[in-house]
Amino acid sequence: MTSYLTAPLSGEAPRPFEELVGEALNALPSTFPRDITQVMVALDIDGTILSPSGASAQVVESIAALNRAGAQVVIATGRSMGAVLPVLPLLGFRRGWIVASNGAILARVHEAGYEIVHRHEFSPAEVIDEALTALPHARFGAEDRNLRLISTGFPEGEIVEDTELVSVDELRSMRTPKLVIREPALDRDAFESILCALPFAKTHEVFVGWTSWADISSLGVTKASGLDELRRDLSLPVEGSVAIGDGTNDIAMIQWAAFGVAMGGATEEIRVHSDFVAAAVENDGAAAVMQAILRWCGVASC
């Protein structure tokens, strides 16, 4: 069986899918639109719609059903475009929107490929310099279109994009949508504690993943900012916005959405910001929410 680099499973006990759909349906706000074309559904990838074994049939069909019905389905991820593109075939995602790099990139996907609509970059020099004072052996990565530029080797299998080895000085001199800081010698909590004590934690967005890996972007650039930019471009109502995720980089969009959903595998740090806690990825919690939206809007899923 193929294994995918993504968040680990939560260990949640199996639950009946129809029960999960019913719970999500009952949780939808009364002001949620009945017109499916007024709905935007933002889906995180890792730990939300992708597990180590891939994307389930329920997830793939639910995304397809929303697209067929006229909803706007948005993949909202911390991944770069180069790391998102290999996942799209697993999801059957042939058209729609991508908010990548934690909101720094907005792209439109179509049958012929994709196009970048918005791209927000920053200079990482200040962040790199401050990080090296506390983490002298840290590894850095920056995005340059679909290529990941790295200062030294990352642990095997962690980077799915094509990479090019460059000096730290070269990374300092470029502009990038997102900087990655990785320190494999530290556990996640110690790493996060060190980063959050550095000055750039107050001047930039800092998102720590499930290991000692952090995504850094410009202050104010989050999945929520990228989604709201798209929502306004499409003239969609705030009342029809849904966001589903499980990580610290999902908190902003969960708070932003009219219906913010935390996955069952999310920690309490994320759950406290949500309107609803869905089942974990191994129980197709995101698919259950998508099916509930279809039923609320009176749309058959197949």
Automatic annotation (TrEMBL):
<dbReference type="InterPro" id="IPR023214">
    <property type="entry name" value="HAD_sf"/>
</dbReference>
<dbReference type="InterPro" id="IPR036412">
    <property type="entry name" value="HAD-like_sf"/>
</dbReference>
<protein>
    <submittedName>
        <fullName>Phosphatase YwpJ</fullName>
        <ecNumber>3.1.3.-</ecNumber>
    </submittedName>
</protein>
<dbReference type="GO" id="GO:0016791">
    <property type="term" value="F:phosphatase activity"/>
</dbReference>
<keyword id="KW-0378">Hydrolase</keyword>
<dbReference type="GO" id="GO:0000287">
    <property type="term" value="F:magnesium ion binding"/>
</dbReference>
<dbReference type="Pfam" id="PF08282">
    <property type="entry name" value="Hydrolase_3"/>
</dbReference>
<dbReference type="GO" id="GO:0005829">
    <property type="term" value="C:cytosol"/>
</dbReference>
<dbReference type="InterPro" id="IPR006379">
    <property type="entry name" value="HAD-SF_hydro_IIB"/>
</dbReference>
